[in-house]
Every structure is written in structure tokens, then in C-alpha cells.
Design a protein that fits this description.
Length: 396
């Protein structure tokens, strides 16, 4: 049953479906077309018919499928990316999480054309339990966060009655405790390896390896891996402005001596003098061949991101870095429980070992409170206290 248009003083309205209220009266659910133009209203009606025209009363006979609504949801998210209202990385995470749930529905239900009314609390709980056999609790939390956003959008559009994720408390798995702080010896092994590779590249003995360069910069600057992947060669005048929003941005100054970082609603500017020689040598342009068997068909790509993908000219995925980092840990015979974020923690502990001011460290890292930075002091080892023990003699 398709809806119909009705003109009021304040504009055209679309009547979605009829229903009988608790007193036995027949009424209509309606939504504003937000226009007084009949031609525009007709176009809006075509769009609404596609969404709402399949049902008479969704409270009695719901027919909105997961497959169709995900497509509409991602279209709305894509528009937000174009308007600069949503990060491209968040949009990619939306796609990844919704695809994981779709694959699970196909595996368990035989199809992704499951009605949204059947995607209840129990179904989401089964998804969490099955997903735990494949990935870490942190990944599951990320999937659930994006699914909750999707069902929240459906609730706002009056497609579902409740958000199944927020309606009842889910039994989420606890995060596993990881060995996230490298020991002094492990930090030195990784530092010597990366420094050696970078120095051989700078001297022309080896080819440029973006991953090793990325890791070495993180060990020098203590940045988050997401900040490094988002780092641009220059400021985007359209999007890299202001601070009263949640859109992250990272860009280098023209002389490469400073780095402006706006991440997790915290703005900071840090110097890059210690790694400026490396930044100057990183390629800014690539010659990409579309067809390998046609050498003439080459395209010159001017990179937007410092560590971007030269074939797409977009930022790389964080999970790609995670896989490469695990391979590196295995190659160096280090603990594979370390992650790329462990280097940010390791940088903080190394600065504390070198007697750097903890308040300066906190501001440099972009922590909201100095108490967050003080947590790293708990990871000092017994050999870090040798200097204190040997300095007991009172001064004369």
C-alpha cells in the first residue's frame, strides 16, 4: 500500500499508513515533505513510497528488511561524508560492521533479507557470542557500536519500535588484558631495528618502506596510529578548521617543522624537528600504472596523506597496520600481544625513564588529565629504580 499526499497550510505531508488507535478510530501516520511545491512533493513521495509503501501497519505487519534498510542508511551516511559532517574512516567502519552482521545473518538465517522486527535482543546476543570465537572483544564492541547507530537511525525514521541494542543490556565479553607496555629491552630491540632500516633508506641502500617509517615516527612522537594514518601534507582549508566538533584532522606545516593534531576533541601542536629529515624524504608523488602490461598508461598521483595508499589516494586502514605489526613482532621474536598502540604507551614510559616532566608529557600526548599519564609510571621496572637506590647518600 503506497502512501498519499495531503496539502496543509504549512506545506505538503505524506501519509504513510493507516492504523486503528486504542479508541477504535482510524488514523494515519504522516511525515512532512518539508516543501510547499507540489512538484517537489511528488518527488519526495516517490522516495517515501520506496521506503514506506510496502506496509499497511508496521506495528502489525513489519516488512522492512535488513538488506534494504542498510542500503538506505549507508546512502545517508555517504551524504554526510560529502558534506563534511562525518569522517570517512567512520563511514568505512560502518560498512565493515554492517557487512559482518550481514554475513552472519546469511550464515545463520540463510539470507540477509531478515525483517528488522526479527533483529531483536536475542539475535544480537547470538551474534556477539558467535563473533567472540573469531575476533577480540574490542572488535565486537566496535561492531555493536555501529549496529546501534544503524538501529537508532531506523528508530528515528519510525521503521522499528525499539533499538534492540539499547532496549536491554547485552552480555558483552570483557576485554582481555594485554601486555601493552614494551619492556626496556623490547623497546630497544624494536628501536634499533627500525632506526637501522630507516637510516639505510635515507642513505639510498634500501627502498622506502612506509610501514617501518610509520612505526619509527610513532616511536619518536608517541602519537596514536590513527593520528599518523590521518596525517596530511598540508591543511585542508575546507575541513581542517575549528575545534567544536568531533571531526579529527592532522596536518603538517609548510616547512614540516610542526604538526597540528585535533583528535578526540583535543587540539595540540607538536614539533617534528627530530624527524624532519625523514618527512622530507617521504615520497609525495607516485607514478601509478593502471594496467601493468601497458607502460605508457601511467598516472601521476599527488598524495594527500603522508602514509596514504597511492592507488586510491586515501588513508590506509588501521587493521592493515595491525596485521603487519604482528608479523614484525614475530620476525623480531617479541611478544605478539604488543599492538601498534603499545608504542604510544612505550613512548610515555620511556620519557618517564628519562626524567621528562610528566605535565609536559601529558600535554604533548593530548591527554585530558595528567592522571591518565601518571598511570604509565606503574609500568616502570625494578632496574628503573637503580639510580634512586644508588643516590641515597645525603648531600654535604
Amino acid at each position: 500500500m503506497a502512501g498519499k499526499l495531503y496539502k496543509r497550510k504549512d506545506g505538503w505531508f505524506y501519509y504513510k499508513y493507516s492504523f486503528v488507535d486504542e479508541f477504535g478510530y482510524s488514523k494515519w501516520r504522516m511525515i512532512s515533505c518539508k516543501t510547499k511545491d507540489k512538484q517537489v512533493a511528488d518527488n519526495v513521495k516517490k522516495h517515501y513510497d520506496k521506503t514506506f509503501g510496502r506496509v499497511t501497519n508496521p506495528f502489525q505487519n513489519p516488512r522492512f528488511t535488513y538488506k534494504d534498510m542498510v542500503e538506505d542508511y549507508l546512502n545517508s551516511r555517504r551524504l554526510k561524508v560529502k558534506r563534511g559532517q562525518l569522517s570517512e574512516l567512520t563511514y568505512k567502519s560502518d560498512i565493515n560492521s554492517l557487512d559482518r552482521f550481514r554475513d552472519w545473518l546469511i550464515k545463520k538465517q540463510g539470507s540477509d533479507s531478515v525483517e528488522l522486527a526479527d533483529c531483536n535482543h536475542k539475535l544480537i546476543q547470538k551474534f556477539i557470542d558467535d563473533r567472540l570465537d573469531e575476533v577480540s572483544p574490542t572488535t565486537i564492541d566496535n561492531n555493536i557500536k555501529h549496529l546501534s547507530s544503524f538501529f537508532g537511525w531506523c528508530l528515528k525514521k519510525d521503521i522499528v519500535k525499539v533499538n534492540p541494542i539499547l532496549n536491554k543490556k547485552l552480555d558483552k565479553p570483557r576485554r582481555r588484558k594485554r601486555k601493552s607496555i614494551p619492556t626496556k629491552n623490547d623497546w630497544k630491540i624494536l628501536w634499533d631495528y627500525c632506526e637501522g632500516k630507516v637510516n639505510r633508506w635515507l642513505s639510498g641502500e634500501e627502498h622506502y618502506d612506509y610501514f617501518i617509517t610509520l612505526i619509527f615516527l610513532q616511536m619518536n612522537l608517541g602519537m596514536r596510529i590513527g593520528e599518523l594514518l590521518s596525517m596530511k601534507w598540508k591543511k585542508d582549508l575546507y575541513s581542517d578548521n575549528d575545534t567544536g566538533h568531533s571531526m579529527n584532522y592532522v596536518y603538517l606545516s609548510d616547512d614540516l617543522s610542526k604538526l597540528t593534531i585535533y583528535f578526540k576533541r583535543r587540539l595540540r601542536t607538536i614539533p617534528t624537528n627530530s624527524v624532519i629529515q625523514i618527512l622530507e624524504k617521504i615520497p609525495r608523488e607516485y607514478h601509478v600504472r593502471k594496467w601493468l602490461n601497458r607502460p605508457r598508461n601511467q598516472k601521476k598521483v599527488k598524495m594527500k596523506y603522508v602514509f596514504g595508499n597511492q592507488y586510491t589516494n586515501k588513508s590506509r586502514y588501521g587493521n592493515q597496520i595491525s596485521r603487519d605489526f604482528k608479523k614484525l613482532m614475530m620476525k623480531l621474536d617479541l611478544d605478539t600481544q604488543y599492538t601498534s598502540h603499545s608504542l604510544r604507551h612505550g613512548w610515555a614510559v620511556n620519557q618517564i625513564r628519562n626524567n621528562s616532566n610528566i605535565y609536559t608529557i601529558s600535554k604533548f600526548m593530548g591527554h585530558s588529565m595528567v592522571q591518565v599519564t601518571e598511570i604509565y609510571a606503574d609500568h616502570l621496572q625494578s632496574d628503573d629504580f637503580d639510580e634512586l637506590v644508588n643516590n641515597n647518600k645525603p648531600k654535604e
